[in-house]
Write a structure and sequence with these properties.
single chain; alpha+beta; two-stranded antiparallel sheet; 4 strands; 18% strand
Amino acid sequence: MTTKNKTWELLPFATIQRAMEGDPVAVHKVMDHYENYILKLSTRKMKDEFGNDRYCVDEELRSRLESKLLETIVEFKI
């Protein structure tokens, strides 16, 4: 898929299958594939001590999203 000069490649089916079986290397590849998306979803606008808007990653939300992805990989059915 190409959007505004960015290219995303799909995960190979074999990688998804191995991740579902619990292969740690495949699970790591899946997690890496979704890392930027998770960071985007967990970015929040917050105010600093001077009232300025700052964007930062909500680490608790990021951790929860990663945990949910891991859970979904194990439970995924083809």
